[in-house]
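Notebook B, p. 112. Complex prediction, attempt 2.
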Amino acid sequence: MPIRERRERERTERERRIITAARELAEAEGWDAVTTRRLAERIEYSQPVLYSHFKGKDAIMAAVALEGFAELAARMRAARTVTPDPRASLAAVAEAYTSFAAARPMLYEAMFTNAVDLTFASEDTPAPLQAGFAELREAVHPFAGTDDPALTAEIFWAALHGLVTLTRKHRLRPESHPRRLALLLHHFTA
Amino acid sequence: MPIRERRERERTERERRIITAARELAEAEGWDAVTTRRLAERIEYSQPVLYSHFKGKDAIMAAVALEGFAELAARMRAARTVTPDPRASLAAVAEAYTSFAAARPMLYEAMFTNAVDLTFASEDTPAPLQAGFAELREAVHPFAGTDDPALTAEIFWAALHGLVTLTRKHRLRPESHPRRLALLLHHFTA
DNA sequence: ACTCCCTTCTAGCAGTGCTAGATAATAGAG
DNA sequence: CTCTATTATCTAGCACTGCTAGAAGGGAGT
Protein backbone atom coordinates (compact mmCIF):
# COMPACT_ATOMS: atom_id res chain seq x y z
CA MET A 1 0.00 0.00 0.00
CA PRO A 2 1.92 3.02 -1.27
CA ILE A 3 -0.81 5.35 -0.07
CA ARG A 4 0.24 5.05 3.51
CA GLU A 5 3.80 5.76 2.50
CA ARG A 6 2.81 8.87 0.62
CA ARG A 7 0.85 10.01 3.65
CA GLU A 8 3.81 9.58 5.91
CA ARG A 9 6.09 11.30 3.45
CA GLU A 10 3.77 14.27 3.26
CA ARG A 11 3.56 14.30 7.00
CA THR A 12 7.30 14.45 7.59
CA GLU A 13 7.54 17.05 4.86
CA ARG A 14 4.97 19.16 6.67
CA GLU A 15 6.87 18.75 9.91
CA ARG A 16 9.95 20.09 8.19
CA ARG A 17 7.97 23.10 6.97
CA ILE A 18 6.85 23.82 10.52
CA ILE A 19 10.42 23.79 11.77
CA THR A 20 11.80 25.98 9.02
CA ALA A 21 8.85 28.35 9.31
CA ALA A 22 9.51 28.72 13.02
CA ARG A 23 13.18 29.25 12.40
CA GLU A 24 12.71 31.84 9.66
CA LEU A 25 10.10 33.72 11.63
CA ALA A 26 12.31 33.75 14.71
CA GLU A 27 15.37 34.96 12.83
CA ALA A 28 13.33 37.67 11.14
CA GLU A 29 11.28 39.00 14.04
CA GLY A 30 12.44 37.24 17.20
CA TRP A 31 10.91 34.39 19.14
CA ASP A 32 8.12 36.52 20.55
CA ALA A 33 6.78 36.82 17.03
CA VAL A 34 6.66 33.07 16.64
CA THR A 35 3.11 32.30 17.69
CA THR A 36 1.19 29.15 16.92
CA ARG A 37 -1.29 31.12 14.82
CA ARG A 38 1.37 32.72 12.66
CA LEU A 39 3.10 29.37 12.21
CA ALA A 40 -0.18 27.78 11.16
CA GLU A 41 -0.77 30.59 8.70
CA ARG A 42 2.68 30.09 7.19
CA ILE A 43 2.28 26.39 6.58
CA GLU A 44 -1.27 26.97 5.36
CA TYR A 45 -2.91 24.71 7.89
CA SER A 46 -4.98 25.39 10.95
CA GLN A 47 -3.50 25.78 14.39
CA PRO A 48 -4.25 22.33 15.86
CA VAL A 49 -2.21 20.47 13.24
CA LEU A 50 0.90 21.78 14.97
CA TYR A 51 -0.07 19.77 18.01
CA SER A 52 -0.30 16.57 15.98
CA HIS A 53 3.39 17.03 15.20
CA PHE A 54 4.73 18.56 18.39
CA LYS A 55 3.64 18.44 21.98
CA GLY A 56 3.66 22.22 22.16
CA LYS A 57 5.47 25.36 21.20
CA ASP A 58 8.46 24.41 23.34
CA ALA A 59 8.86 21.20 21.37
CA ILE A 60 8.92 23.19 18.13
CA MET A 61 11.62 25.44 19.53
CA ALA A 62 13.54 22.37 20.66
CA ALA A 63 13.39 20.97 17.13
CA VAL A 64 14.76 24.23 15.76
CA ALA A 65 17.45 24.19 18.43
CA LEU A 66 18.49 20.67 17.49
CA GLU A 67 18.90 21.77 13.89
CA GLY A 68 21.07 24.60 15.17
CA PHE A 69 23.28 22.24 17.14
CA ALA A 70 23.86 20.14 14.04
CA GLU A 71 24.88 23.21 12.06
CA LEU A 72 27.12 24.51 14.80
CA ALA A 73 28.85 21.15 15.10
CA ALA A 74 29.43 21.06 11.34
CA ARG A 75 30.90 24.55 11.34
CA MET A 76 33.21 23.79 14.21
CA ARG A 77 34.34 20.59 12.53
CA ALA A 78 35.10 22.44 9.31
CA ALA A 79 37.00 25.11 11.21
CA ARG A 80 39.01 22.64 13.27
CA THR A 81 40.14 20.50 10.35
CA VAL A 82 41.14 23.35 8.07
CA THR A 83 44.65 23.47 9.49
CA PRO A 84 46.94 20.96 11.22
CA ASP A 85 48.35 23.57 13.57
CA PRO A 86 46.66 23.06 16.95
CA ARG A 87 46.81 26.72 17.92
CA ALA A 88 45.31 27.94 14.65
CA SER A 89 42.81 25.14 14.85
CA LEU A 90 41.56 26.17 18.27
CA ALA A 91 41.40 29.78 17.15
CA ALA A 92 39.35 28.79 14.13
CA VAL A 93 36.92 26.80 16.25
CA ALA A 94 36.45 29.69 18.65
CA GLU A 95 35.95 32.06 15.75
CA ALA A 96 33.44 29.69 14.16
CA TYR A 97 31.53 29.41 17.41
CA THR A 98 31.20 33.12 18.11
CA SER A 99 30.49 34.08 14.52
CA PHE A 100 27.77 31.43 14.33
CA ALA A 101 26.14 32.91 17.42
CA ALA A 102 26.45 36.42 16.05
CA ALA A 103 25.06 35.50 12.65
CA ARG A 104 22.08 33.55 14.02
CA PRO A 105 21.25 35.07 17.37
CA MET A 106 17.73 33.71 17.58
CA LEU A 107 18.83 30.23 16.66
CA TYR A 108 21.50 30.43 19.34
CA GLU A 109 18.92 31.68 21.80
CA ALA A 110 16.69 28.69 21.09
CA MET A 111 19.67 26.41 21.61
CA PHE A 112 20.78 27.79 24.94
CA THR A 113 18.48 30.16 26.75
CA ASN A 114 15.36 28.14 25.93
CA ALA A 115 15.00 24.42 25.22
CA VAL A 116 15.48 23.25 28.77
CA ASP A 117 14.75 19.63 28.02
CA LEU A 118 17.78 19.20 25.80
CA THR A 119 20.08 17.88 28.50
CA PHE A 120 23.81 17.47 27.99
CA ALA A 121 26.18 15.11 29.65
CA SER A 122 23.76 12.26 30.03
CA GLU A 123 23.03 9.05 28.18
CA ASP A 124 20.13 10.32 26.08
CA THR A 125 21.89 13.47 24.93
CA PRO A 126 21.07 13.99 21.22
CA ALA A 127 23.89 13.22 18.82
CA PRO A 128 24.38 16.75 17.43
CA LEU A 129 25.02 18.08 20.92
CA GLN A 130 27.58 15.40 21.64
CA ALA A 131 29.20 16.00 18.25
CA GLY A 132 29.49 19.72 18.93
CA PHE A 133 31.11 19.21 22.28
CA ALA A 134 33.40 16.59 20.81
CA GLU A 135 34.74 19.13 18.32
CA LEU A 136 35.50 21.52 21.13
CA ARG A 137 37.21 18.80 23.13
CA GLU A 138 39.35 17.76 20.18
CA ALA A 139 40.41 21.32 19.52
CA VAL A 140 41.27 21.97 23.15
CA HIS A 141 42.94 18.63 23.76
CA PRO A 142 46.49 19.58 22.63
CA PHE A 143 46.57 22.31 25.25
CA ALA A 144 45.07 20.44 28.18
CA GLY A 145 48.41 19.13 29.38
CA THR A 146 47.92 17.13 32.55
CA ASP A 147 44.44 18.50 33.05
CA ASP A 148 41.27 16.63 32.17
CA PRO A 149 40.60 17.46 28.48
CA ALA A 150 36.83 17.25 28.89
CA LEU A 151 36.91 19.61 31.84
CA THR A 152 39.17 22.01 29.97
CA ALA A 153 36.82 21.90 27.01
CA GLU A 154 33.93 22.70 29.31
CA ILE A 155 35.47 25.85 30.71
CA PHE A 156 36.62 26.96 27.27
CA TRP A 157 33.09 26.41 26.01
CA ALA A 158 31.71 28.34 28.99
CA ALA A 159 34.01 31.25 28.19
CA LEU A 160 32.85 31.33 24.57
CA HIS A 161 29.23 31.05 25.61
CA GLY A 162 29.69 33.83 28.14
CA LEU A 163 31.29 36.11 25.58
CA VAL A 164 28.46 35.44 23.16
CA THR A 165 25.60 36.01 25.59
CA LEU A 166 27.10 39.02 27.35
CA THR A 167 27.84 40.67 24.03
CA ARG A 168 24.36 39.91 22.80
CA LYS A 169 22.79 41.53 25.85
CA HIS A 170 24.91 44.67 25.46
CA ARG A 171 27.07 43.86 28.44
CA LEU A 172 30.27 43.92 26.42
CA ARG A 173 31.35 46.29 23.68
CA PRO A 174 31.07 44.43 20.37
CA GLU A 175 34.00 46.26 18.80
CA SER A 176 36.52 44.78 21.22
CA HIS A 177 35.34 41.24 20.62
CA PRO A 178 38.37 40.23 18.51
CA ARG A 179 40.74 41.39 21.22
CA ARG A 180 38.81 39.47 23.85
CA LEU A 181 38.89 36.35 21.73
CA ALA A 182 42.62 36.66 21.17
CA LEU A 183 43.21 37.17 24.89
CA LEU A 184 41.09 34.15 25.74
CA LEU A 185 43.03 31.99 23.33
CA HIS A 186 46.25 33.28 24.85
CA HIS A 187 45.08 32.10 28.28
CA PHE A 188 44.30 28.63 27.00
CA THR A 189 47.28 28.06 24.72
CA ALA A 190 49.97 29.47 26.99
CA MET B 1 2.50 70.81 53.59
CA PRO B 2 3.45 67.47 55.11
CA ILE B 3 0.54 65.77 53.35
CA ARG B 4 2.30 65.74 50.04
CA GLU B 5 5.37 64.34 51.71
CA ARG B 6 3.41 61.54 53.31
CA ARG B 7 1.86 60.77 49.95
CA GLU B 8 5.21 60.48 48.28
CA ARG B 9 6.56 58.40 51.12
CA GLU B 10 3.66 55.99 50.84
CA ARG B 11 4.16 55.90 47.13
CA THR B 12 7.83 54.94 47.25
CA GLU B 13 6.98 52.44 49.94
CA ARG B 14 4.42 50.88 47.65
CA GLU B 15 6.94 50.79 44.84
CA ARG B 16 9.29 48.87 47.09
CA ARG B 17 6.53 46.38 47.85
CA ILE B 18 5.97 45.83 44.15
CA ILE B 19 9.64 45.07 43.59
CA THR B 20 9.99 42.73 46.53
CA ALA B 21 6.72 41.00 45.65
CA ALA B 22 7.98 40.42 42.11
CA ARG B 23 11.28 39.14 43.41
CA GLU B 24 9.76 36.78 45.96
CA LEU B 25 7.24 35.44 43.51
CA ALA B 26 9.92 34.87 40.91
CA GLU B 27 12.26 33.11 43.30
CA ALA B 28 9.42 30.92 44.53
CA GLU B 29 7.72 29.97 41.27
CA GLY B 30 9.78 31.37 38.42
CA TRP B 31 9.29 34.47 36.29
CA ASP B 32 6.44 32.94 34.33
CA ALA B 33 4.42 32.98 37.52
CA VAL B 34 5.01 36.70 37.96
CA THR B 35 1.95 38.15 36.26
CA THR B 36 0.62 41.65 36.72
CA ARG B 37 -2.55 40.26 38.25
CA ARG B 38 -0.74 38.22 40.85
CA LEU B 39 1.52 41.13 41.68
CA ALA B 40 -1.48 43.39 42.10
CA GLU B 41 -3.10 40.85 44.37
CA ARG B 42 0.02 40.65 46.52
CA ILE B 43 0.32 44.35 47.09
CA GLU B 44 -3.46 44.57 47.60
CA TYR B 45 -4.06 47.07 44.83
CA SER B 46 -5.63 46.76 41.44
CA GLN B 47 -3.62 45.97 38.33
CA PRO B 48 -3.36 49.46 36.81
CA VAL B 49 -1.51 50.92 39.80
CA LEU B 50 1.53 48.95 38.68
CA TYR B 51 1.60 51.06 35.56
CA SER B 52 1.66 54.27 37.55
CA HIS B 53 4.98 53.08 39.01
CA PHE B 54 6.54 51.22 36.11
CA LYS B 55 6.20 51.46 32.37
CA GLY B 56 5.43 47.78 32.14
CA LYS B 57 6.34 44.34 33.38
CA ASP B 58 9.80 44.60 31.87
CA ALA B 59 10.50 47.70 33.93
CA ILE B 60 9.53 45.84 37.10
CA MET B 61 11.92 43.05 36.19
CA ALA B 62 14.62 45.61 35.49
CA ALA B 63 14.11 47.10 38.94
CA VAL B 64 14.48 43.66 40.50
CA ALA B 65 17.57 43.07 38.38
CA LEU B 66 19.13 46.31 39.56
CA GLU B 67 18.63 45.23 43.16
CA GLY B 68 20.35 41.98 42.26
CA PHE B 69 23.34 43.78 40.78
CA ALA B 70 23.76 45.77 43.98
CA GLU B 71 23.73 42.60 46.04
CA LEU B 72 26.12 40.78 43.74
CA ALA B 73 28.55 43.71 43.84
CA ALA B 74 28.43 43.75 47.63
CA ARG B 75 29.10 40.02 47.85
CA MET B 76 32.03 40.23 45.46
CA ARG B 77 33.48 43.13 47.38
CA ALA B 78 33.20 41.22 50.65
CA ALA B 79 34.82 38.18 49.08
CA ARG B 80 37.66 40.14 47.49
CA THR B 81 38.66 42.06 50.61
CA VAL B 82 38.60 39.10 52.97
CA THR B 83 42.20 38.21 52.20
CA PRO B 84 45.26 40.15 50.99
CA ASP B 85 46.48 37.24 48.89
CA PRO B 86 45.59 38.02 45.26
CA ARG B 87 45.15 34.41 44.25
CA ALA B 88 42.85 33.58 47.16
CA SER B 89 41.07 36.85 46.56
CA LEU B 90 40.28 36.04 42.95
CA ALA B 91 39.16 32.56 43.95
CA ALA B 92 36.85 34.03 46.57
CA VAL B 93 35.34 36.45 44.08
CA ALA B 94 34.70 33.67 41.57
CA GLU B 95 33.19 31.51 44.28
CA ALA B 96 30.98 34.40 45.43
CA TYR B 97 29.81 35.01 41.88
CA THR B 98 28.85 31.44 41.07
CA SER B 99 27.29 30.73 44.45
CA PHE B 100 25.21 33.89 44.18
CA ALA B 101 23.91 32.74 40.82
CA ALA B 102 23.20 29.26 42.15
CA ALA B 103 21.44 30.54 45.24
CA ARG B 104 19.25 33.04 43.41
CA PRO B 105 18.74 31.65 39.92
CA MET B 106 15.68 33.73 39.09
CA LEU B 107 17.32 36.92 40.26
CA TYR B 108 20.33 36.10 38.12
CA GLU B 109 18.04 35.38 35.21
CA ALA B 110 16.40 38.78 35.54
CA MET B 111 19.84 40.37 35.63
CA PHE B 112 21.24 38.72 32.55
CA THR B 113 18.87 36.85 30.30
CA ASN B 114 16.16 39.49 30.56
CA ALA B 115 16.47 43.21 31.26
CA VAL B 116 17.85 44.18 27.88
CA ASP B 117 17.75 47.89 28.55
CA LEU B 118 20.33 47.74 31.32
CA THR B 119 23.31 48.48 29.13
CA PHE B 120 26.88 48.09 30.31
CA ALA B 121 29.97 49.87 29.16
CA SER B 122 28.30 53.16 28.42
CA GLU B 123 27.95 56.48 30.15
CA ASP B 124 24.53 55.91 31.67
CA THR B 125 25.34 52.50 33.06
CA PRO B 126 23.74 52.23 36.53
CA ALA B 127 26.17 52.43 39.45
CA PRO B 128 25.64 48.90 40.81
CA LEU B 129 26.60 47.40 37.47
CA GLN B 130 29.77 49.45 37.30
CA ALA B 131 30.57 48.58 40.92
CA GLY B 132 30.20 44.89 40.25
CA PHE B 133 32.47 44.97 37.24
CA ALA B 134 34.97 47.08 39.18
CA GLU B 135 35.25 44.34 41.81
CA LEU B 136 36.00 41.81 39.14
CA ARG B 137 38.57 44.08 37.54
CA GLU B 138 40.31 44.69 40.85
CA ALA B 139 40.44 40.99 41.63
CA VAL B 140 41.82 40.11 38.20
CA HIS B 141 44.24 43.01 37.99
CA PRO B 142 47.24 41.36 39.71
CA PHE B 143 47.22 38.61 37.10
CA ALA B 144 46.71 40.72 33.99
CA GLY B 145 50.41 41.25 33.44
CA THR B 146 50.96 43.25 30.29
CA ASP B 147 47.40 42.64 29.12
CA ASP B 148 44.59 45.15 29.44
CA PRO B 149 43.12 44.56 32.94
CA ALA B 150 39.61 45.53 31.84
CA LEU B 151 39.70 43.15 28.92
CA THR B 152 41.04 40.37 31.11
CA ALA B 153 38.27 41.03 33.59
CA GLU B 154 35.75 40.81 30.78
CA ILE B 155 36.81 37.38 29.62
CA PHE B 156 37.04 36.12 33.19
CA TRP B 157 33.55 37.43 33.77
CA ALA B 158 32.37 35.78 30.57
CA ALA B 159 33.81 32.47 31.72
CA LEU B 160 32.02 32.71 35.06
CA HIS B 161 28.79 33.73 33.38
CA GLY B 162 29.11 30.87 30.92
CA LEU B 163 29.68 28.34 33.69
CA VAL B 164 26.66 29.65 35.55
CA THR B 165 24.25 29.65 32.64
CA LEU B 166 25.37 26.35 31.13
CA THR B 167 25.13 24.65 34.49
CA ARG B 168 21.72 26.14 35.08
CA LYS B 169 20.42 24.83 31.75
CA HIS B 170 21.73 21.34 32.47
CA ARG B 171 24.52 21.60 29.95
CA LEU B 172 27.21 20.91 32.52
CA ARG B 173 27.23 18.40 35.37
CA PRO B 174 26.74 20.36 38.60
CA GLU B 175 28.88 18.00 40.66
CA SER B 176 32.07 18.85 38.79
CA HIS B 177 31.56 22.59 39.21
CA PRO B 178 34.30 22.97 41.87
CA ARG B 179 36.85 21.27 39.62
CA ARG B 180 35.86 23.52 36.71
CA LEU B 181 36.21 26.60 38.87
CA ALA B 182 39.63 25.50 40.10
CA LEU B 183 40.77 24.81 36.56
CA LEU B 184 39.52 28.19 35.37
CA LEU B 185 41.41 29.95 38.17
CA HIS B 186 44.48 27.98 37.23
CA HIS B 187 44.28 29.29 33.67
CA PHE B 188 44.02 32.88 34.85
CA THR B 189 46.57 32.85 37.65
CA ALA B 190 49.29 30.88 35.88
C1' DA C 1 -23.32 2.32 -1.45
C1' DC C 2 -22.31 2.29 3.11
C1' DT C 3 -20.06 2.35 7.17
C1' DC C 4 -15.54 3.34 9.55
C1' DC C 5 -11.54 5.74 10.58
C1' DC C 6 -8.37 9.15 10.36
C1' DT C 7 -7.43 13.85 9.34
C1' DT C 8 -8.42 18.53 9.71
C1' DC C 9 -11.14 22.38 11.09
C1' DT C 10 -14.13 25.66 13.76
C1' DA C 11 -14.93 27.49 18.05
C1' DG C 12 -13.76 28.33 22.46
C1' DC C 13 -11.28 28.32 27.16
C1' DA C 14 -8.39 30.40 30.49
C1' DG C 15 -4.83 33.10 30.72
C1' DT C 16 -1.49 37.19 29.40
C1' DG C 17 0.07 42.53 29.29
C1' DC C 18 -1.93 46.70 29.02
C1' DT C 19 -5.41 50.74 28.83
C1' DA C 20 -9.71 53.74 28.35
C1' DG C 21 -13.25 55.57 30.87
C1' DA C 22 -15.90 55.66 35.08
C1' DT C 23 -15.67 56.32 40.07
C1' DA C 24 -14.10 57.33 44.61
C1' DA C 25 -11.32 60.15 47.64
C1' DT C 26 -9.10 64.21 48.74
C1' DA C 27 -7.35 69.28 48.58
C1' DG C 28 -8.23 73.96 48.32
C1' DA C 29 -11.53 78.04 47.83
C1' DG C 30 -15.56 80.40 49.33
C1' DC D 1 -19.27 73.56 56.41
C1' DT D 2 -20.00 73.32 51.27
C1' DC D 3 -18.78 73.04 46.81
C1' DT D 4 -15.74 72.30 43.03
C1' DA D 5 -11.19 70.75 40.88
C1' DT D 6 -7.87 67.43 40.96
C1' DT D 7 -5.84 63.43 41.82
C1' DA D 8 -5.81 58.46 42.80
C1' DT D 9 -7.83 54.23 42.02
C1' DC D 10 -10.85 50.85 40.12
C1' DT D 11 -13.91 48.22 36.83
C1' DA D 12 -14.28 46.51 32.47
C1' DG D 13 -12.50 45.37 28.37
C1' DC D 14 -9.20 44.81 24.25
C1' DA D 15 -6.22 42.05 21.52
C1' DC D 16 -3.42 38.60 22.04
C1' DT D 17 -1.28 34.02 23.80
C1' DG D 18 -0.92 28.48 24.03
C1' DC D 19 -3.82 24.89 23.82
C1' DT D 20 -8.02 21.62 23.23
C1' DA D 21 -12.82 19.54 22.77
C1' DG D 22 -16.04 18.32 19.57
C1' DA D 23 -17.79 18.83 14.94
C1' DA D 24 -17.08 18.13 9.98
C1' DG D 25 -14.67 16.36 6.18
C1' DG D 26 -12.83 12.75 2.90
C1' DG D 27 -10.83 8.80 1.47
C1' DA D 28 -10.42 3.11 2.58
C1' DG D 29 -12.39 -1.41 2.94
C1' DT D 30 -16.44 -4.36 2.81
